[in-house]
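Minutes, methods subgroup
Present: GH (chair), OT, SY

1. OT presented the first of two proteins processed in the latest run. Sequence and C-alpha cells recorded below as shown on screen.
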Amino acid sequence: MSTSGKVIKCKAAVAWEVGKPLSIEEIEVAPPKSHEVRVKIIATGICGTDEHVLTGSFPKVEYPVIPGHEGAGIVESIGEGVTCVKPGDKVIPLCLPQCGECNSCLKWKTNCCLQTHLCNPQNLMLDKTSRFTFKGKQIHHFLWISTFSEYTVMPDSTVVRIDDAAPLDKVCLFGCGFSTGYGAAINTAKVTPGSTCAIFGLGGVGLSVVMGCQAAGASRIIGIDINKEKFGKAKELGATECLDPQDYKKPIQEVLVEMTGHGVDYAFEVVGCLDTLTAALASCHMGCGVCVMVGVPPLDSLLSFDPLLLFTGRTLKGSFIGGWKMKDAIPQLVSSYMEGKLKTDVLITHTLSFSEIEEGFNLFHAGKSIRIVLLF
C-alpha cells in the first residue's frame, strides 16, 4: 500500500534537551510539501558533530531535535516541483545544501551555500514548520536532514541521487565524514606531489585526510593522535609514520619542525581543539606552510595565537565539508567508490542496528571505533 501523501509513524532518536542521552521514540513524519523529499533512511553513520548536538556545543540547534546527518536511503515520495529525484531513487542527504541560486552557489570558488545552517538555521523547513511530531509535540530537524529517523523530510536542495547499485550501508560515509576529510586534502589544501603532511586526529575524518594526502601524491604523511590503537589503520591507509604527543617532552609542533627540518608543507587539524589548531599552524613551514582547520571548534570559542606565525607566510584556512559542491560531487565520489578507486570500507569498524545507537555512542566515546554505521 502506498504511503505517499500520508503521515508515517516510525522510529527516531530524539535529543530532548542538552546533556540528556538520545531516546528512541515512535514519531510521526508528515508528507513532503512543495520542493521537499521524504526519504526512507537505510543506513546512517555516527559522527562527532552528532555528539556536539547532544552536548549543546553545536550552534543554533533547537531542542527537541532529531540529530544525524551522515546517511543514505531511498526516496519514498516527493512534493510538488521536485525534479532532481523520484520515488525509488537511492539518495544521499546533504548536510550542506546546494541550492544552485544563491551568490555562493553561483561562484566556483566556494561551496558555502547561503542556505547552510551557519547562515540560516535549519531547525525547521523553509516554511518555518516541522515535518516531525511526537504525540502532537513539534520536533526540530537537524541540518534539514535528521538521519537518525527511519523516515525524514528535507528540501530538494539537500538530497542527491546516486548509483542504483551503490551499497547504502557503505556509501553513507560520503554524506559527511569521508568527503570532509578527503576533500580537505584534495580541494582545500590542494596537496602537491612529494609534499610533507601532518594530520592531527586520526578518527574517521582524519583518516580520510590521510587517504586524500596519499591520493595527491604526498611523500611523507605523519599521523598524530593520543590513541595509539589508531596507528595501524592510519598506516594501512597511507600514513608513513605516526606520533603520540604524550611520548615527547617538548610540544609536538617542535617535534615536527625538527623531524622535517623546516616544518610540514600541509597540516590538518581534525580534532576541533584550539590548542591543537595552534600547534598545527606552528608545525607548518614558516614561509609557505598551509594549515587547514577541519575539526569544528567549541561553541563560542575564540582563537588566540602569535600573529607572527602568519607574518612570515604561513596560511590558515578552513575547510567546509571538504570544499565540495555536494550535489555535483557526491554522485561522482560514489561512482569512484563503485569503480574501486576509493577504499572507504576500511573506515567502518562497527555495523549495528539502529536500536543499538546507545552502544554506538559508547564505542565512539571509548575511542574503540573509526566509523559506526547504524542500520534501520
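2. SY then presented the second protein from the same run.
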Amino acid sequence: MEFYGNRKSLFGFMDEERNSIQSPARLSTRSHQEMCEQDLVLSPPRPSSTSMVSLLPPPSPESPWTLSPLQTPSPSILYSCIASLHRHEGNIYSIAVAKGMVFTGSSSTRIRVWRQPDCVERGFIKARHGEVRAILAHDNMLFTTNKDCKIRIWNFTVSDNFRTKKVTTLPRRSSFLSFSKSNTQQQHRDCVSCMAFYHAEGLLYTGSFDKTVKAWRVLDKRCTCVDSFVAHESNVNAIVVNQDDGFVFTCSSDGSVKIWRRVYRENSHTLTMTLKFQQSSVNALALSSFFDNYFLYSGSSDGSINFWEKDKMSGGFNHGGFLQGHRFAVLCLVAIEKLIFSGSEDTTIRVWRRAEGGCYHECLAVLDGHRGPVRCLAASLEMEKVVMGFLVYSSSLDQTFKVWRVKVMPDQEKTMCLDYSDYHSNSKTTTTKMDYEMSPVLSPSWVEKKMKASNYFQ
C-alpha cells in the first residue's frame, strides 16, 4: 500500500492520471451486469429527449469553480454549487463522508481524500487493483471494493497529517493448503456493487452482481465471512441496514426490494418481506428514521421513487406512495434528517422533504448543473443557529464532481410537490402539484448514445 499526502486544490489532480485511466465505455443496450463500466440501467426514452440537442448550452469555461446561477423554486431552501471539478478521463463511481473528510473512488487506482467543506485535497490512497466501485466509511474505518471482486479495509487518522493503513483484504488469505477452497466459497464472483455496515454487531454486508449478499464479521481478528446467500434473481444494486434492529434491505435489477432478518444467535439470514416486484430495475435505496418513524425509499429505472412506512404495530412496511419528477432513471438516493436527495439519469438532483407526521412530501429544489447522469451522491449535516445546512457531493457520467451547499429555512407553510400518495384519496389536505417543464440538459455525446440505444426499447 502506498499513500501520498501532498496537498492540492480540488481541481489540480486530474492531469496526473490521463495516461493511466481508460476512457469510459460507450453506452450500449446490454444488460445491467454487462454495463459494469457505467453501472446503470437506462430508462425508456421520453418524448422530450428528441429535442435535447437543440437545448444544449455553450461549453462551460475552463475554470472548474462555478457558482450556481439558478434560482430556487421554493422559499424554504437556498442552495448553490460551491465547487465543480472535471475529470478529463474516467468517472467517479463512489463517494463517502466521515470525520470531516470526503473519499472518492473512481476508475483510477487512487482513492482521493478531501477536506470538508473547502475540498482541499489531503492526499490519496493507492489501490493497486483500481476501479473502486463502492466506498463505505464508519468512524476511522474505510471499506472499499475493487475490480478484483475483493473488499479492502483501511484505518485512517485525521490530524495535521492525514494517515492511513490497510488492515486486511476480504476474503483473507488462509493457509496454502486451504487457500483455494476457502477463497472460492467466500469471495464474490462478480463486481461488488454496494456495502452496508451494522454497527452493533460489527457486520459488513456486501452485495454483488453475482446475485449474492455476504456478511463479514470485521471487528475480530479473523474477519471471516459468516453468511452468504442468494438474495435476488439478478444484480444486487444497493443495500442498507437499520441500525436499530439489524434488518437488512436489498434491491436488484430484477425489480424487487427485499427485507432480511438475521436469525437470533445464528449467522444466517431469512427473508421476511418482498416489498414489490416490477419490470423496472431498482437501482438505489435509502432508509430514513425520525424518532420512532421509519421510511424506506427506492429509486427505479422508470424515474419513480417509491417509499414505504414502517408499521409500528406489526413491524412490516406499508407502501406510502411514490415521488415522481425525474424524467429518466433514478440512480442514487441519500436520506438525511427529513430530506431525501435523488440523483437521476436526467442530469438533475432533486431535494425532497417529508412533511411532519405524514407520508406527504414536497420537492424543495432541483439542483441542475450536471450535463450527464448523476451516478452517486453523499451528504453531511451542517448545523447553524437558525437554518439547517447540508453539504451535498455529487458525481456524474459527464466526468464532473460537484459540491453543493443547501440551507433549509425553518418550517413555513408547505406546498406539496409531485407526491402521488396512496393516501391522497382519503386526505383532506389540499395538494398543489408543481412541475418542472424544463427538458434535461445532456452532453452531446450522451444524447448520441441515448438515441442509439432507443431502438432497444421499441
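Chair's summary of item 2: Confidence is low (pLDDT under 50) at residues 1-72, 175-181, 412-438.
Next meeting: continue with the remaining queue.
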